[in-house]
């Protein structure tokens, strides 16, 4: 299977040089884009459409550290974007407690229309999200590094739990955003 | 070495004529093309005006009038004269936008908007837009004395799938191959970018007659990357007119005004708005009523509308991850940005004076012409590339009427997404899919794009059949859907029923109808076009004979003269096919002579070498 890394001819790794990736994306777009073959036959145009679609998807995924982490995990067989994924139910108990506590606090703030409180929570959750992403990145680096003695399964589980939290925190922040937009308009 | 410039005689290898850019606007439409490396707008209406009012009048005898003349007919025939048709593109009769203050007669009980006009047959917005495009095409053809068959047509960045599809269909109806639907703010940026060779991040604030768009773009190494876009496809300068008209009608005490009065008051309001750009107050008269409108009053009336654009701009900046202070420039587009209150608001919003050195009415058409040139001219393709985005998220209806987003707004296009569906009943052979566009969580709050049924699924136990549905959005921002059953690999047949607008069959029928009705018309036009062509070829042949007669060989003169006489004779007749043949024959007959002329010219330029050496 052609991975997003293959599209850019990059080795599979968590760390990506984003400015270099952007430059390469522009160069590849200039070569592949349907605008380059607007007057060519239908087959050429379809090829350009498919090539550029794959390029855009790969670029979107690799330029963003969060999407990149989820993608690497998916390459290890765990797709957190699927609602029915077993990984969703597999989260540790402490995490569920954390979710309940945050949920309740946000609901209270929203009921009271307490925007400053919601904003303060968002700052705190943002920090937790950053820490969880750092944890996932560490596990994914160790996984892709593949040094001797690296316990693959344990690392996948660690990355999966950390990214499960990232995912939840992201949604939480989106809710605060929506609440903020609603309160201001 | 290029042969261009030597052989100017009719070239059968270039049958497509001039590629143009078209700004199909709510209030005015323009057509532009690149000539000698520069985009220029083409005169398209009375007095060599570059602006064609987007007004179409349907006469009792079935005739159609487009432009300034149609606009003059509006007060007397308000229901037979359609203006601002762009507002109705891809909309349903129940849309709030369709129900705004206006003076049309709609055909009741239709699932698409149909205007009841003189001449017998009701018309839909695609047909009305098709008339505007056809008028632009013809007038551009007359201007260039050549065929115009390929066009880039601009659309508001915030147009959804149905509105884009409707625009593309209107192009087809007018006999144009639509090379690309280009977002208006992106077109404007292209017009600015190429002139200045600039790099950086720009905001384009585009307030047209009926639509508002904002785009944040980054230009690096010749690649225009749209970072985000936002807008309101139901907000524009027309709403300013309506705001004035509502106050005037109120002052007149007209609670249920006639269509004619509404049309008159709207026209007077538009004039008042334009005059208020320079004057602090104006006198408005309509329907025997006169009142003074002060600029301060006007500013207050439109204030809520202008503020709506601010909310959209802030979200676009946020989506792009750009702060207002990081922008390298703000570009103003659209006639409504002439309103001083709008300019003030934009300057305040972005914290800088906006650029407006290209005429805001022309800038979109000029950019579209540049894109048409880039797409058709192989020599120019390395210069610049546009990477645009989809303005609104695409999603599917799931259990409980909740939307599951498949493609997020501001994704770079072309883009695709796939979703696997499983059956939920034993032996189930069909699945219903509902595609929506928008940002809201509930299906009913978004725009319904299409419903379709996946049929022919193999009858298996519940959950065993897996159908992968693939959604592809092309570079025009238009969606297409395909499906594959995963266990058998069978491709599914999909019938997509557009929720609003017209089905493919209806579009086909419209195309056929327009051909039936327009056959005589087409015939006459083809004769005219062929005559223009013939005249050009004759003039050129005469010139070459005059200037390079010494290069003629024995008997050649007589043959060329005979071929020219045949062309002259058929030019007087009405058979364009025979005329075309004669022009071709003249080409063939004079070719050896023309080649000698060309060879000599090249030899003179390169100093004694023959063409074969190059």
Question: What descriptors fit this protein?
Answer:
heterodimer; A: 185 residues; Monooxygenase; B: 614 residues; alpha+beta; Actin, Chain A, domain 4; Substrate Binding Domain Of DNAk, Chain A, domain 1; five-stranded mixed sheet; 37% helix; globular; disordered N terminus; disordered C terminus
How would you summarize this macromolecular structure in one to three sentences?
The complex is a heterodimer of chains A (185) and B (614). Chain A has 185 residues and is mainly α.
Element string of chain A (H = helix, E = strand)? HHHHHHHH
Amount of helix of chain B:
25-40%
Low-confidence stretches of chain B: 1-15, 607-614
Total separate domains of chain B: 4
Number of helical runs of chain A?
A: 8
Percent range for β-strand residues of chain A: under 5%
Number of domains of chain A: 2
The CATH architecture assignment of the largest domain in chain B turns out to be 2-Layer Sandwich
Class computed from helices, strands and strand pairing of chain A: mainly alpha
CATH topology of the largest domain in chain B: Nucleotidyltransferase, domain 5
Instruction: Give the name of the CATH architecture of the largest domain in chain A.
Output: Up-down Bundle
User: For the largest interface in this structure, which chains are involved and how many residues does each contribute?
Assistant: A-B, 18 and 26 residues
């Amino acid at each position: 299977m052609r991975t997003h890394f293959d599209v850019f001819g990059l080795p599979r790794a968590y760390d990506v040089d984003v400015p270099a990736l952007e430059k390469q994306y522009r160069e590849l777009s200039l070569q592949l884009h349907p605008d380059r073959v607007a007057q060519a036959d239908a087959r050429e145009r379809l090829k350009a459409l498919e090539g550029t679609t794959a390029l855009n998807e790969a670029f979107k995924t690799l330029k963003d550290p969060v999407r990149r982490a989820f993608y690497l995990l998916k390459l290890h067989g765990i797709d957190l974007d699927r609602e029915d994924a077993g990984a969703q139910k597999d989260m540790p108990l402490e995490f569920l407690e954390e979710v309940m506590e945050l949920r309740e606090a946000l609901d209270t703030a929203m009921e009271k229309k307490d925007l400053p409180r919601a904003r303060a929570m968002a700052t705190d959750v943002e920090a937790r999200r950053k820490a969880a992403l750092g944890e996932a990145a560490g596990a994914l680096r160790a996984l892709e590094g593949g040094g001797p003695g690296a316990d693959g399964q344990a690392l996948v589980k660690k990355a999966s739990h950390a990214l499960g939290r990232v995912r939840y925190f992201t949604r939480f922040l989106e809710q605060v955003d929506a609440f903020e937009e609603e309160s201001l308009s | 070495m290029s042969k261009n410039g030597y052989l100017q005689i009719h070239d059968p290898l270039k049958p497509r004529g001039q590629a143009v850019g078209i700004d199909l606007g709510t209030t005015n439409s323009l057509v532009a093309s690149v000539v000698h490396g520069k985009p220029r707008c083409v005169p398209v209406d009375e007095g060599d005006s570059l602006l064609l009012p987007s007004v179409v009048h349907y006469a009792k005898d079935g005739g159609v009038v487009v432009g300034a003349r149609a606009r003059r007919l509006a007060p007397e025939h308000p229901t037979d004269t359609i203006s601002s048709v762009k507002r109705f593109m891809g909309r349903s009769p129940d849309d709030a936008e369709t129900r705004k203050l206006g003076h049309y007669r709609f055909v009741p009980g239709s699932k698409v908007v149909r205007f009841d006009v003189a001449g017998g047959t009701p018309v839909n917005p695609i047909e009305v837009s098709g008339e505007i495009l056809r008028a632009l095409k013809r007038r551009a053809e007359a201007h260039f004395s050549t065929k115009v068959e390929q066009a880039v047509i601009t659309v508001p960045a915030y147009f959804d799938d149905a509105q884009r599809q409707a625009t593309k269909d209107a192009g087809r109806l007018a006999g144009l191959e639509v090379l690309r639907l280009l977002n208006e703010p992106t077109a404007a940026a292209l017009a600015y970018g190429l002139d200045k060779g600039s790099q950086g991040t720009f905001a384009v604030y585009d307030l047209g007659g009926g639509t508002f768009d904002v785009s944040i773009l980054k230009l690096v190494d010749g690649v225009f990357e749209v970072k985000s876009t936002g807008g309101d496809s139901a907000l524009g300068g027309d709403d300013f007119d309506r705001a004035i008209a509502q106050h005037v009608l109120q002052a007149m005490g007209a609670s249920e005004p006639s269509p004619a009065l509404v049309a008159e008051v709207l026209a007077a309001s538009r004039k008042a708005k334009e005059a208020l750009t320079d004057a602090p107050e104006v006198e408005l008269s309509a329907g025997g009523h006169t009142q003074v409108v002060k600029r301060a009053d006007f500013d207050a009336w439109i204030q809520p509308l202008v503020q709506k654009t601010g909310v959209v701009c802030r979200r676009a900046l946020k989506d792009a991850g750009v702060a207002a202070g990081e922008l390298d420039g703000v570009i103003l587009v659209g006639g409504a940005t002439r309103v001083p209150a709008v300019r003030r608001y934009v300057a305040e919003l972005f914290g800088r004076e906006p650029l407006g050195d290209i005429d805001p009415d022309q800038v979109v058409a000029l950019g579209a012409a540049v894109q048409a040139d880039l797409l058709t001219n192989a020599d120019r393709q390395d210069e610049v590339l546009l990477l645009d985005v989809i303005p609104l998220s695409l999603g599917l209806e799931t259990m409980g009427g909740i939307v599951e987003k498949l493609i997020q707004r501001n994704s770079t296009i072309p883009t695709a997404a796939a979703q696997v569906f499983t059956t939920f009943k034993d032996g189930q052979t069909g699945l219903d899919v509902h595609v929506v566009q928008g940002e809201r969580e509930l299906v009913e709050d978004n725009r319904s794009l299409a419903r379709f049924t996946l049929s022919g699924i193999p009858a298996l136990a519940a959950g065993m059949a897996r159908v992968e549905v693939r959604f592809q959005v092309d570079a025009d921002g238009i969606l297409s859907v395909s499906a594959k059953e995963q266990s058998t690999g069978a491709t599914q047949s999909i019938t997509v029923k557009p929720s609003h607008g017209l089905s493919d069959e209806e579009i086909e029928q419209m195309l056929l109808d327009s051909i039936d009705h327009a056959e005589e018309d087409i015939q006459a036009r083809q004769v005219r076009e062929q005559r223009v062509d013939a005249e050009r070829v004759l003039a050129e042949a005469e010139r070459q004979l005059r200037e390079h007669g010494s290069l003629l060989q024995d008997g050649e003169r007589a043959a060329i003269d005979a071929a020219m006489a045949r062309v002259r004779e058929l030019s007087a007749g009405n058979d364009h096919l025979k005329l075309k043949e004669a022009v071709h024959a003249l080409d063939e007959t004079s070719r050896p002579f023309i080649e000698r002329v060309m060879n000599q010219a090249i030899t003179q330029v390169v100093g004694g070498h023959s063409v074969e050496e190059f």
